[in-house]
Amino acid sequence: MKQVWKIFSTDIVNLSKNWVAAILVGGLVFLPSLYAWFNIYASWDPYGNTDRLPVAVVNEDQGATVRDDEIDVGSQLVDSLKENDTINWKFTERKDALKRVENGEYFAAIIVPEDFSEKLATVTSGHPQKATMEYYVNEKTNSIAPKITEKGASAIVETVSKEFTSTVNSVIFDMFNKLGIELQTDLPDIEKFEQYVFSMEEKLPGVQKLLESVLNDADQAQALLSQAEQKMPEAKRLTAEGLSTVNQTLGYLDTAEQQLAALEPQIEKDLETAARVSGEINDMLLEIQKADLDTTQLDTAKSGLDDKMTEAIQSVDNIQKQLLLLKEINQDASETPVPEADQEEAPTLPEEDLQGRQTESSAAGQSAIDNAIQTTGQLKSALQEAQDNARAVEEAAAGYVEQAKGWVNDVQGIAQNVSVSIDSYTKTYNETIKPTIQKEIKDARSTLAEARDLLSGIQATLPEAEKIITSTSGHLSEGEQGIEEALNQYPYVYTKITELADRIRSVQGETDINEIIDLLLNDPEAEKSFFEEPILLHENKLFPIENYGTGMTPFYTVLSIWVGCLLLVSLLSTDIHHAEQFSQKTVYFGRLLLFLLIGVLQSLIVTIGNILVLGVDVAEPLGFVLSGLLISTVFMTIVYTLVSVFGDVGKAMAIVLLVLQIAGSGGTYPVVLLPDFFQMISPYLPFTYAIDLMREMTGGVVQARIAKDIPILVGIGAAMMVFGSFLKPILNKWMNQILKKSRESGLFH
């Protein structure tokens, strides 16, 4: 140990005596810190200076029309970028932009095509198209700039997309809000509609039965209309015939009235004759009865009496014939034909009314005439009997005068009865028969007039009725077709109504329309704001790093310490003069102390300078400095051991190890992003643990990590010391021969 210390103290004395050596060593002490500081400062905040990065923007957008509103997203984008200073935006034309990007004057160009707004507007159509931007980048100018410009382009796209989405969502939620208000207003109607659907579902089977019933009734009505249509010609014929018959009968009545007018004087004359003759007979019989006539006078009286009786009988017979004629006239009047009217075709008076009125009046007339005919028959019989008795008186008068007088009395009684009967008959004729027959004719004429008017009305109505029947039949056929179509569509309608009702019940069970209304009612501006940024990233920096330079400080600090080690082994010798008086192990540790001292100084300057000169924000300043000392000691041991044991080969090995560690330690990129080879060697590289330890001190300590990093680093340093102390004596003679051989080439010192 004394020998080791002797070597170290000798080196210190030599440095203090040789100012050139002291200056060189002083330079070696400061050089690593310069390496670290320049790199850290250069990368201090590159992303904070992107406003110096020129990027061309070309707007060729022609705008578009959406529902009578003009939109120009390209112009809006340009206006927005003019207020954005994150990148040095250059607004120019396409040709100029592409030329400058190609020449490297601009790092990238963003071109808004002429159909940009037009494609965005297709969102309101049934076939929306995505709008595109053209992005040109010259990647050969710089490896980082394209990434930054790409971020800028992505930010533009994101901004446009966000604004577009926000605007669309604002419109949508405004519509939702209006829809919610309308739903809230129409809620009673919606509930009524639901009840209507349920009611329809319940009543549809009844509707089907009703349609079937109506269809059946329509079939029956169609059959009745067909029958009526078929009977229409016959109805026309019967009406025409009825009118003809009525007119003919009215003619008969006129004739009967004329005949009655002609008979009345004759009947009255015959009645007067019969009455006169009857009186004369009575007078003659009184004279015969009073007078005491001889045979000649009696014969004369009897002859005159017989003539009078014959005249009376003839008069009564004429009256009887005239009464029979009156009876026939009265029957013709009472048997006036009543036309049969089709009650379906036109309104008619009931047949019973016409016939009833005729029957009532004709019955009285017929009875009076029949009584008169019977009376005239009796008169005629009485007169004939009286005549027969008178003739019997004549035959018996010669021998039986007394008996003849008795017969005369009988004849006189008969004659008186006849006279009374004639008077009674005359009264009956004038008071009953004549007025009754006249009334019969008048009633018949009135009835026939009514029948004629009725038939005329029917005849006038029949064409219109025929049209109505034809039209009704057509409409009824159309109605039947409609009903049949409705019945054919009924299963489909019933199925759909049932499905709708089931769906409404299902929706009612799953969703409350009031909840839907609450969801639709909103503040459009608030919803727009929400969809502009629906998710807020609440960043929690567990170990905040102030800037990019601070984040790179651990890597560049560790790297500068290793570089400082390489500088030392390049300028300072790992061997001593007059080494023969010391063992190889003593030489190894004696010169190692000098290297470690210089390394400690390098580390102190670098770490303290990072904090004080650059102003790096370090969470654990003391830990940062102490970690630097530990790392410097370990690295110096590694590099010194390699060079001390292997000579120039060891220098090459240290450089190779540096290269591997820069790439594989995760100093710039996470190890997981590196190729598999570097991921594989990363756990075996000192840089991995040195950088991690410095990061813990810079950002904030996690005890578990430093508890892993420090032992590994100490272990590596200790292992290298053991390696150097044991192998240097073994390999030194062989390595010296190699060194001597290489110097013989004149290429190596």
TrEMBL record:
Primary site of residence: membrane
Residues covered by region (Disordered): 333-366
One CC-aspect GO term: membrane
Native source organism of the sequence: Bhargavaea beijingensis
Domain (ABC-2 type transporter transmembrane) ranges: 29-164, 581-696
Polar residues biased stretches: 356-366
An annotated Gene Ontology molecular function: ABC-type transporter activity
Compartments in which it is found: Membrane
Listed Acidic residues bias regions: 341-353
Membrane topology according to the record: Multi-pass membrane protein
Protein's UniProt name: Putative membrane protein
InterPro entries attached to this UniProt entry: ABC2_TM, Phage_infect_YhgE_C, Phage_infect_YhgE_N, T7SS_ABC-Transporter
Coiled coil residues, start to end: 211-238, 369-403
Pfam family, one: ABC2_membrane
Keywords (A to Z) from UniProt: Coiled coil, Membrane, Transmembrane, Transmembrane helix
Transmembrane domains' residue ranges: 20-38, 554-572, 592-616, 622-643, 655-674, 710-731
Entries under PANTHER family matching the protein: TRANSPORT PERMEASE PROTEIN, TRANSPORT PERMEASE YVFS-RELATED
